[in-house]
C-alpha cells in the first residue's frame, strides 16, 4: 500500500510517498481501507518538529514515528478475532491520535479507541477531519467551559477548522455566538450560524463594550491581557494554541485562563466527546466545511497550503 512518511524534520518537501506492506489487524483491531484522511496544523507542527520542546516527545534529532495523518474515514476490510462492534463493509471514521498513519491507503485501529460508524449524513471527506476541529473545540466548549444556553461566546478565528466547528457547537449548546474573521469570510461565518460577526480587518474585538462569558481564541492571535476588559467577571478565556503567555496566565490565573491539548485526554473522555459529536452529526446539526481536497500523492501541496494559515474549515486527502 502507499503511505506518506517523513524521516526528518523540515519543510513539506521532507514528505515521501512510499510502498509499505498492508497492515494485518491484531485480534482487537479493524483494518480500514482509507477513503479520506485529515491534514491538520498539528501535522505540520510534527513535521517541522516545532515547537522545539515537542521534540522531547517526537524524537530529539529525527521523528521516532515517521507516519503522518491522524484522522480518517473509510471502510472496514477485515476485523480481528475479538472484534464484535464492527464488521467487514462498515463505513467508519475516527482518529489514531499520536500514533498517526492515516495519510495512507490502509490503517489498523483498535476497536476501543476513537472509532465509530460514520453517520450517513457525512461523506468520507466530511468525516475524516471531524476529530480535528470538532473534537478539539467540543473539548473546550463542553469539558472546559461547560457552555450553557444563553451564554455569550466570542470565537476568534471563526473561519478555521477549530473555529468553524466551535461556532456550530456553541450554537448547538444554546449559546449566543459572535465570530471573529476577516472581510472575505464574514458571509461564511454567518452561514454556519454565528449571530454576530466582527470583521477583524475593520474592527478590534478587544475594544468592544460587550462582555463575553467565554472567549475562545481558536487561532491564538489574541491574548488574555488584551481580552481582560471584554470578559465577564466569572467568564473565561481559553485557547488551544500553546504560548509562554498562555502557560503563565493559566498557572497564575487558573480559574480564568485555560489551555488544553485535547489529544492528551484519556481515551474514554475522547470517546465520550466523539460519541456526542456522532449524535449531533446524525441529527444533521453540524456540517464539515472543506476548503480543498488533495490526493495522497499531493500531500506536500496540502502541507504548503496549510502553512499559509488562510484555509477555511478543513483540507482533506482523498484516496480514489
Ligand atoms: N490544543 C489542541 O488540542 C489543538 C488541537 C488542534 C489544533 N490546535 C491548534 O489550533 C490552532 C488553530 O487550528 P486550525 O486548524 O483551526 O487553524 P486554521 O484552520 O489553519 O486557521 C486558519 C483560519 O484562521 C483565520 N485567521 C488567521 N488570522 C486570523 C486573525 N488574526 N484573526 C481571526 N482569524 C484569523 C484565517 O482566516 P483569514 O484568512 O480570513 O484571516 C483562516 O480561516 C492551530 O495553532 C493548531 O495547532 C490545537
Walkthrough of the structure:
The protein contains ten helices and 15 strands. The protein is globular, with a radius of gyration of 19 Å. The protein folds into two domains: 2-130 and 288-318, Medium-chain alcohol dehydrogenases, catalytic domain (Quinone Oxidoreductase, Chain A, domain 1), CATH 3.90.180.10; 134-262, NAD(P)-binding Rossmann-like Domain (Rossmann fold). It is 26% helix and 27% strand. Helix 4 (133-144) packs across helix 5 and helix 4 packs across helix 9. Strands 3, 4, 5, 6, 7, 14 and 15 form a seven-stranded mixed beta sheet that branches. A six-stranded parallel beta sheet has the order 10-9-8-11-12-13. It has 320 residues and is an alpha/beta fold. NADP nicotinamide-adenine-dinucleotide phosphate binds next to helix 1, helix 4, helix 5 and strand 9.
Overall pLDDT confidence? 97
The percentage helix is 25-40%
Number of strands: 15
Along the chain, the helix and strand elements come as EEEHHEEEEHHEHEHEEHEHEHEHE
Structural class: alpha/beta
* Main sheet summary: 7 strands, mixed
What radius of gyration results from the CA coordinates? 19 Å
Point out poorly predicted stretches.
none
